Amino acid sequence: MLQQNNLGQVCGAETGFLVSSSPDTVRAPDVAFIKRERAEQVGRVRGYFPREPDLAVEVISPNDTYAEVQEKAVEWLAAGTRMVVVLNPRKRTATVYRSLNDITILNEDDVLDIDDVVKGFKFALKIYLNSVPF
Asked: What is the C-alpha to C-alpha distance for residues 55 and 118, in angstroms, rounded to an integer?
């Protein structure tokens, strides 16, 4: 839906984003979204994307600690990412960070509404939690 409607670019875990400079710090979320307008401003990129994504999604894997993933979420927000979603397949939850003061925890029966970042986009969280392989 995102790419078909020309809303922006979805990037996988292999895409790095510059989150700070001096020294350069590049991070790669599990999934990211960049609005079309922002992607067009930057243009074609070789290497890592020189800005933060609009949306970063992190999945807590069996080897991650909750503290490590929370640190990533805070780092994304500090870089200017508008929303960070942390999926926890083991607990069947999603933590949505819109800022350090606006944090929502959803369970698998909730609907994740990211309309404030991706216009018109909301989905049943259960569908995505069921697709995570652990």
From this structure: 9
What is the per-residue DSSP string for 45-96?
A: -SSSBSS--SEEEEE--TT--HHHHHHHHHHHHHHT-SEEEEEETTTTEEEE
Q: Are 92 and 59 in contact (CB under 8 A)?
A: no
Residue 14: helix, strand or coil by DSSP? coil
H or E segment at 11? strand 8-12
- Assigned token pair, 99: 């800022």
| pLDDT tens-digit readout, 48-89 | 888 899 999 999 988 999 899 999 999 999 999 999 999 998
Three-state secondary structure call for residue 131: helix
* Residues in a beta bridge with 58: 86
| Type of residue at 92 | R
Joined together, the tokens standing for residue 51 give: 């800005």
Task: Give the whole-angstrom CA distance, residue 99 versus residue 88.
Answer: 19
Half-sphere exposure of residue 92: CA atoms within 13 angstroms, side-chain side? 8
